[in-house]
Design goal:
mainly alpha
Length: about 80
C-alpha cells in the first residue's frame, strides 16, 4: 500500500479509469460480435455502423491504439462484404 498521499490518490484514480476503460472495451467487442453473427448483409451493414462508432470512441479515449482501430475496422468491412 502506498504511504504518500498522491500515491494513494493515483491508486483510486487508476481503479476508476480501469473500470471505465473496461466498459468501453466491452461495448466495442460486443458490437463487433453482433456484426459477426448478423445473418443478412443489411443487418450487418447497420450493425457495422454502430461498431465503427464504438471503435472510434475507444480509440479517441485511448483505450485502443490507432493501428488497432484500423485493423478492427478493416475486419468488419471484410465481414460485411463477404455476406
Amino acid at each position: 500500500m502506498p504511504n504518500i498521499k498522491s500515491a494513494k490518490k493515483r491508486v483510486l484514480i487508476t481503479k476508476k479509469e480501469t473500470v471505465l476503460n473496461n466498459d468501453v472495451r466491452a461495448s466495442m467487442k460486443t458490437a463487433i460480435k453482433k456484426v459477426e453473427k448478423a445473418q443478412t448483409k443489411e443487418d450487418a451493414t447497420t450493425l457495422a455502423a454502430n461498431a465503427m462508432k464504438r471503435i472510434d470512441n475507444a480509440a479517441s479515449k485511448g483505450v485502443i491504439k490507432a493501428n488497432t482501430r484500423d485493423r478492427y475496422k478493416t475486419r468488419i468491412n471484410k465481414i460485411v462484404n463477404s455476406k
